[in-house]
Amino acid sequence: MHNHAASSVMDLIRGAAHSLTGAATDYDPLLELIGDARVVLIGEATHGSHEFYRERALITQRLIAERGFTAVAVEADWPAAAQVDRFLQGSDDTALDALAGFQRFPSWMWRNTVVRDFLSWLRAHNDARRASAPPVRFYGLDLYSLYESIAAVLDYLATVNPQAAQQARQRYACFEEFHPDPQHYGYAISFEAADSCADAAVAQLLELQRRASTLMRYDGQSAEDAFFVAEQNARVIKNAEAYYRSMFRGREAWNLRDTHMAETLDAILAHLSRQGQPAKIVVWAHNSHLGDARATEMGQQGELNLGQLVRQRYGRDVVTIGFSTYSGTVTAAADWDAPTERERVRPALARSYEALLHTVVTSAERAVGAAATPDAGHPDVLLLLRDDPALAEGLRAPRLERAIGVVYRPATERRSHYFSARLADQFDALIHLDETSAVEPLDRYAGWEQGEVPDTFPTGQ
C-alpha cells in the first residue's frame, strides 16, 4: 500500500474510532448497531486473553439486561455446558462447581476467573427474575464430547425408557474399543483397521427423534427440555463420528465441525422459540469461527465457518464482532495437550491489521472525527464497520491478521498464526485492545505462575 493510501486509511480509522475508556457508555454505539438483531457473534483473537473475555462478558451482560437476549452459546462441548445451564436454572452448585465439566485440554478456555464471575452474574440475574421470566440459558456448540454425549444419551434413556436405553447401548458399543480417545477411532478408520460406526450413530439419532412424543410423555414437566438436551447429544455423537473419521482428510474436518456448530445454533433458536421465549442468542467463539470465512484466506482454500453459515441464513439479523490485539501476554500451550503457560505475545507483523491499528491508536496526533474523539492514553478502540461505507472501503484491502488459538508458536508466528483477510467483509464491528494480558486459569499451573522467560523475539518466521 502506498504511503498516501496508508495515511488515508489511518485518517479514516482516527475519524471513526470510538475510544474505550472503561466508561459505562463505551458500548452504546455498538448496541445501537446491534439494534434488533437476533444473533450476536462475539469473537476473540486468542483463546487466552483476559481482556477479550472481560469485554465480551460486559457486552453480553448489556445485551441480556437491555436487549432481551436469553441464551449464550459458546465454543465448548454440549455436556459440559449443560452442567453450567443447570446451575443457571437454580441447581445447588456454585459457579466453580458448574465449570467442573471443563477438565479436558484446554481447560483454561472456560475454567478461568472471568467466566466464573460471568456465570455468577448470570445466576444472580436469573434468580432476580425467576418468577417473572424464563432463565437465560447456556449451551455448548462443539462436538469433541463423543463419549460424554454417549453417557448422557444412555442416562436419559435409562430414566425414561430402559428398553430404549439397552438398544442404544448396543448401537454405541461400536465405539467402546476406542475409549477414551475418539482420535483412535479416526486413526483406525483411516487405515481401514476398524468398521465405521456411522450407521449406528445415525440410526440412534433417528430412533430418538422417532420416539420423541413417547419419550417426552415419561418425563414430567421439563420433558421437552430434557428431550432436547438428549437429542442434541445424539446429534453430537453422529457429527463427532463423522468429524473423527475425516480428521486425516484435509479441510473436511474443519468444515464438518463448523457446520455442526451452525446446526446446533439453529436447533437452539428453534427450541427456545417453541418454548415461547424471544429467541435471541449471543455466541462466543474464536474470530476464526465467527469472522466470515468468505473474506479470508481460509475461504479461498475451501473452508467455511460458523460466521459465514449464520450470515447466509439470517442476514442482517446477525451482528459479528471481532477482537484484535497488538502485543502483551497470553495463556496458551506450546503444543496440543502440553502444559499451560503464560507466554509473551510478539508485537504484530508490520503488514497486519493489528500493526495498522497500533500505529493509529498510539499516535500522538488524534484527529477529531464526527463519530468520536479518540483520546491519547486510551489505545483501545471500537470500530463500527457495517454502516460506515468509507471506513469499510478503506479496510477492505487484504492484510495479514493474527489468530492465536490454544497453541502459540512465536518462533514460527508468520506461518503458524497469520492469514490474509478483508476486515470490513469479515466483521460488522471490531474491538482493538492494543495490549492484552493472559487470562487467569482457575487451576494453578507452575508454568503459568512463573510466566515466560524473557526472550529476544527470535527472527525465524
How would you describe what is shown here?
- The protein has 461 residues and is α/β, with parallel strands linked by helices.
- It folds into two domains: 238 residues, EreA-like (biosynthetic domain) (EreA/ChaN-like  fold, 3-Layer(aba) Sandwich); 132 residues.
- The chain is 47% helix and 13% strand.
- The chain has an eight-stranded mixed β-sheet, with helices on both faces.
- Helix 3 runs parallel beside helix 6, helix 7 packs antiparallel against helix 12 and helix 9 packs across helix 12.
- The longest helix is centred in the middle third of the chain and has 24 residues.
- The C terminus is likely disordered.
Q: Summed up, what is this model?
A:
The protein has 461 residues and is an alpha/beta fold.
Spell out the blueprint of helices and strands.
Layout: H1 3-16, E1 18-19, H2 28-34, E2 39-42, H3 50-67, E3 71-77, H4 78-88, H5 95-98, H6 113-128, E4 137-142, H7 146-160, H8 162-172, H9 182-190, H10 198-210, H11 212-217, H12 223-246, H13 252-274, E5 281-284, H14 287-290, H15 297-300, H16 306-314, E6 318-324, E7 327-332, E8 341-345, H17 353-361, E9 380-384, H18 389-394, E10 399-402, H19 413-417, E11 418-421, H20 423-426, E12 429-433, E13 435-436, H21 446-450
Parallel strand pairs: 2-5, 2-6, 3-4, 3-5, 6-12, 7-13
Antiparallel strand pairs: 1-9, 7-8, 9-12, 10-11
Helix pairs in contact: 1-17, 3-6, 7-8, 7-12, 9-12, 10-12, 12-13, 13-16
